[in-house]
Design goal:
Length: 295
């Protein structure tokens, strides 16, 4: 759950006309991970971003009347628009990176600058880099104030590595499509001591592209001759004993490909030797993980 949010408005610069609703909808309908809707009663439109692989979400809006709440001082050649951006804080720093990428496309297409609708004196910017700097400062302040136990801190490097892998899952899945190799997303889990770990799920020793993570969640059903699926948690350090059975690939991020036609006996024995998990680690949604202060 998010505890706060940033709300930004936009102005068109260089004497460009303000984008219309049809311009707004046409732009976001052409962008991946967006779903668009229009409220016929209130006459406003939204473009909600949700990346299923990374879990990142934020939304743009087209709100008639928003242009009347322009910054107190418009520069020469600027025109107010009806476009807004809402993004939650606190959150992992990669949320800002993902939003900045979409902001870049929007601002470049319509020649826009952003401004903070909550305090017009605070933020004005004409680039996605300026937005990222502003959002990062606000997010760091929000991170330090987190008291909600449903939020879990993790090192920025761990969050970034998982995010970079998850962003490339679709492309990597396409790369291994003919070999029928599964590319799993990386998830976060929390142990009883509140340590946040990265994990992937691997079932029945099937073909997989395995990234480096802290924890493997192994599923046994077919290879164990069972009708019921059982789960085992195994550290990646323990799993190193079977990594030589796969092919090591360095790009786009290091991973091991197990593309066997039939699972090697050593791999099957490894799966069968792991103890069934009694109490599994708590799975975390992406918006429940935030940057650990100082990392």
């Amino acid at each position: 759950m998010q505890t706060d949010q940033l709300d930004l408005g936009f102005v068109a610069r260089n004497r460009q006309r303000a984008p219309s609703r049809s311009d707004f909808l046409a732009h976001f309908k052409s962008r991946p991970h967006f779903s668009c809707a229009t409220n016929s009663h209130f006459k406003d439109s939204s473009a909600c971003y949700f990346n299923q692989n990374t879990g990142m979400t934020f939304s743009f809006g087209f709100v008639p009347g928003l242009s009347e709440a322009a910054p107190p001082k418009l520069e020469k050649g600027e025109r107010p628009t009806c476009i807004s951006l809402t993004i939650g804080i606190p959150g992992p720093h990669v949320l800002g990176l993902e939003a900045a990428a979409e902001l870049h496309h929007l601002m470049r297409r319509f020649h826009l600058d952003f401004w903070n609708t909550g305090d017009p004196r605070q933020a004005r910017g004409s680039s996605s880099t300026a937005f990222l700097n502003y959002w990062s400062r606000a997010n760091r302040v929000a991170n330090r104030k987190v008291k909600d136990p449903s939020f879990s801190p993790a090192p920025k490097s761990v969050i970034r590595r998982a995010w970079e892998w998850n962003r490339g899952v679709d492309a990597l899945q396409q790369r291994y499509r003919k070999a029928d190799v599964f590319v799993p997303p990386i998830h976060f889990v929390e142990r009883e001591d509140e340590t946040v770990l990265t994990s992937v799920t691997w079932g029945d020793a099937l073909r997989i592209a395995l990234p480096k993570v802290d924890l493997l969640l192994l599923g046994r059903e077919r290879i164990a001759g069972r009708k019921t699926l059982v789960w085992c948690e195994t550290s990646f350090a323990v799993a190193r004993t079977i990594l030589n059975l796969g092919r090591h690939e360095p790009h786009p991020l290091p991973h091991v490909v197990f593309d066997h036609r039939r699972a090697p006996k050593e791999l099957v024995r490894f799966f069968l030797s792991q103890k069934v998990t009694g109490k599994r680690s708590r799975c975390l949604r992406t918006n429940e993980v935030y940057d650990r202060p100082g990392t």
